[in-house]
Amino acid sequence: MWVFYEYGFTLSQITGADNEYRLHYSDMDGSYPDFYYNLCLSNDHWRSRNPGLTCSATGPNAGFDTFMDHFSNVVSQAQGAYFLVLNVMQFTNLLNRRNQSQSVFSLKQHLNIMFFVALVCSTGIMLILVYVPGLNSAFFLAGPTSASVAAGFWGVIVMIGVEELRKAIVRWSPEGIVARYTLY
Predict the structure, then answer these.
(1) Which domain covers residue 163, as residue numbers?
(2) In contact, 37 and 62? CB cutoff 8 Å
(3) How many domains does the chain divide into?
(4) Which of 24, 76, 78, 84 qualifies as a cystine partner to 142, CB 3.0-4.6 A?
(5) How far apart are CA 168 and CA 162, in angstroms?
(6) Which region holds residue 60: left if phi is over 0, alpha if psi is between -120 and 50, else beta?
(7) Cα 179 vs. chain centroid, distance in angstroms?
(8) Torsion over CA: 28, 31, 37, 43 (sign)
């Protein structure tokens, strides 16, 4: 989400975008050219950085295809940020679930070295997929800014907080309803 706001888009503007954003004007059909033309007109961020271009698809200074390339890059950056944040959330879930009742911050837990090796290796693969130019274009990803990725990390704090609360309830009442339905 942050990537779209960073580049001057709002969620309501891009809701009907579909998959046509990877096409240029000559390849589009139906009402998509009008949709993207209006999207171009409403994007002050792109127009301020391309003062000599218009949102028109034809004529002098036609910048419609340039805007479509810009929009495609923004969507690819958003997909890259989403991919990174989703994987970090999965890592957080793995760290939370190492033990069902001890806190994730407990020093009494067994340290599984291979677990951390696997986390480092999968983080490396994830970063290569997002930031290496040949690979990221194959998966329609683009390297997002660190601010775009960090904007999604609030979920890590929420996940750890909810899981720590659940574990505290389980420790407080080991035979209670929370323990019965969340421990296996």
Answers:
(1) 2-182
(2) no
(3) 1
(4) 76
(5) 10
(6) beta
(7) 33
(8) negative
**Residues for the chain: how many in total?**
184
List, in sequence order, every residue forming a beta bridge with 54; answer none if it has no partner.
62
Contacts of 103 by beta carbon, 8 Å cutoff, 6+ apart: 164, 167, 168
> Tens digits of per-residue pLDDT, 125-172?
999 999 998 888 888 888 888 888 888 888 899 999 999 999 999 889
Contact assessment for residue 36 and residue 67, using Cβ atoms and an 8 Å cutoff: yes
Question: How many CB atoms within 10 Å of residue 76?
Answer: 22
Helix (H, G, I), strand (E, B) or coil at 50: coil
Nearest to 53 by CA among 42, 35, 40: 40
Reported confidence tier of residue 20, pLDDT bands at 50, 70, 90:
low
Per DSSP, the three-state class of 25 is helix
pTM: 0.80
Specify the amino acid at residue 2.
W
The tokens describing 51, both together, are: 């003062």
What letter represents residue 119's amino acid?
L
